[in-house]
What we know:
This protein is α/β, with parallel strands linked by helices. It is built from 13 helices and 24 strands. The chain has a five-stranded parallel sheet with strand order 6-5-4-7-8, with helices on both faces. The protein has a five-stranded mixed sheet with strand order 13-11-15-23-24. The longest helix is centred in the N-terminal third of the chain and has 28 residues, at about 10-40. The two termini are about 25 Å apart.
Amino acid sequence: MPIPGQLIFEDSKKQLYLRAMKTYEYILSATILLVSICGCARKSAVATAADESEPLFLAVRPLPEGGYSLISLSPFDGSRDTLIISRPLSRLIVMSTSHIGFLRAIGGEDAIVGVSGAEYVFDSTVRARIGEGRILDIGYDASPDYERIMALKPELVLTYSVSPVKSQFLAKLESLGIRSFTVNEHLESHPLARASYVRLFGALTGNMSAADSVLAVVSKNYQALRDSVRAMMTVPGEGPQSADAEQRICARKILVNIPYKDQWFIPGQENYLSHLVRDAGGEILGSEPGTSISGQISVERAYSLSKEASLWLNVGWCRTLDQLLSVNPLFGDFLMNIQKNAAANGFGSAGGSDSVGSSASAGSSASVDGFVSAGGSASVEGSASGEGSASVEGSASVDGFASTGGSASVGGSTSGEGSASVGSSDSVGSSDSVDGFVSAGGSASVGGSASGDESTHADGQASPQVIWNDNSRQNAKGGNDFWESGVVRPDLILRDLIRILSGSTPATQLTYYQPVE
C-alpha cells in the first residue's frame, strides 16, 4: 500500500514500510485491546456497520473549556502522540499530500505554509501557491531543509509513520522546539475510517463543522452505494428447501497490481483496497483472509489467477497497454485470459446492460453526473457525466466538492471563504444534484448507458475493456490525486469501481480510474 502522494517509492523506504507492516500485523491485536481500554478506537479489527467510520489510530475529543484533545496511536508499538488544540492553527507543514486533500475538503488550505515533495502535489490551488512562493517545499524527511522549516515558523508539522522507530527527523524537530503530530490515516484499513481523519484537520483549523458535514455526506454516499450493490447481489433462493432463503451471486473476480522489483503484492482481505473492491461487488484473487497486509506471489501464480479473473486493476505506473506489456511480454497472455473470462461472463457487451451480478435498470437522466436520480434512487451509470474530474493536471474541484475561493461545498452550493455547506440550493439527495451525493434510503442501479469501453480484435469482434488503473488524475511528476483528494472521497472511488465492475461504463464517467488501452 503506497504512502499517499508518491507513485514510486525509494527502494529503502518501500522495504522499510513492508517490514513495518509485518510488525504491525503481529501486534495489532494487542494494540486494539489497548485502544479499546483508552477509548480511542473500535474493539475489533473487523469493522461493523455501526463503527466502520471510527478510526483505530486516532481520537478527537472536544474539551469542556473549548478546543480539542487529539490522540494519535501507533499501530506498531501502541505509543501515543497527544496534542491539545485550544485555538485554530494557521501555520502548518504537511508531510503527505493526503493532508492537502483533507484540508482542501474543508476549505482549510490557507493554513498550509510548507509541504514535502512539492512536485507530487496534484491540487491546482496548492500548486499555484507553491509557484508563487506562498507555500514552500521543505524537502523529504530523510533530508529536510531545517533552516527553511525554522524560517516558516510552523505551529505544527504533520507527519506519518512507517515504523515503530522514532525517526531522526522527528528527533531533530523536537530538539528545535518544533511541535509535530503523527497522522496514521494510511494505516487504517476501512475507507470510511480513513476518510474520518478529516475531523482531525477540522479540529486543527477550527473547521470542525465543515469536517463533520463532509464526513456525514461521504459516509452516506458510500453506505448507500455499498448497500445497493449488496442488495443486487442477493437473490431469493429456489426450490422448496430454500423458498425463504437468500443466495449470493458470485462476485466479479479481479487480479490486482503488477510486480514491484520482481515482487507481486496482493492485499489481504482486510486491506483498504480489498474493502473498496468487495463493497463494489468484486473479489481480489489470491487475497489472504483475516489480514490487512499484503502477501507476495510469483508471476507464475499471478498467471494462474488470470485464468480465473475477468478484470485487472491498479497496474502500477502504466497508462497504456504498450507500457504494461513492456513490463513483461507475458502480460499479453494475462490479457487474453481475462478478456476471455469477461466475455464469457457477459461483461463489457455492446448493449451495456451488464450489472454487478444481476440485471440492472438504466440510469437516471435527471442527474448531471448520474449519481442521484429522481425519487431518491442512486444510479451508478445514468446519463453522460458533466463533471470535469478527469483532467490530467486537475482542477480545484472534485465533483463540486471544493469551490472557488477556498470554500468547501458539499451539495453543490458555494459557501463563504474557508467554510463548508451541506445542502443549500442543491440539497443532499435532490433529484437535480450536480455533485453526485446520494440520498439516504435510495437504491442503486449499476448499468444503463451503452459502453464505450470495448476494444476491437482484428476479426472485427469487440472485446471487453478489462484493465483499469487509478491514475486518471495524475500530474507530470506522478503525483496521483487518488492518494490526495481520494482519501477523503472513498465514495467517488467506490462509484468508479462499481461502474468498472458493471462492465458498461465510458471512461468519461469516472473520476480517479481510466482504462489502460
